[in-house]
Recover the amino acids of this structure.
């Protein structure tokens, strides 16, 4: 679900993930099967949390950043 909120990770990052075969294809892009495909940047964290607190949302987005 992080992909829905903050977008897909870089290809380099995805290819270094130990469980990449479950979530990414051979090229490092999110798998697109019907049951589990998450469209990148399709969900707003404000909407998901039902809040207008920009400090909280900013903090969480920084926590969710694709940093190895």
């Amino acid at each position: 679900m992080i992909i829905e909120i903050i977008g897909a990770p870089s290809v380099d990052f995805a290819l270094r993930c130990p469980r990449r075969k479950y979530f990414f294809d051979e090229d490092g892009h999110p798998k697109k099967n019907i049951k589990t495909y998450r469209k990148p940047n399709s969900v707003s964290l404000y909407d998901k949390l039902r809040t207008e607190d920009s400090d909280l949302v900013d903090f969480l987005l920084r926590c969710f950043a694709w940093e190895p």
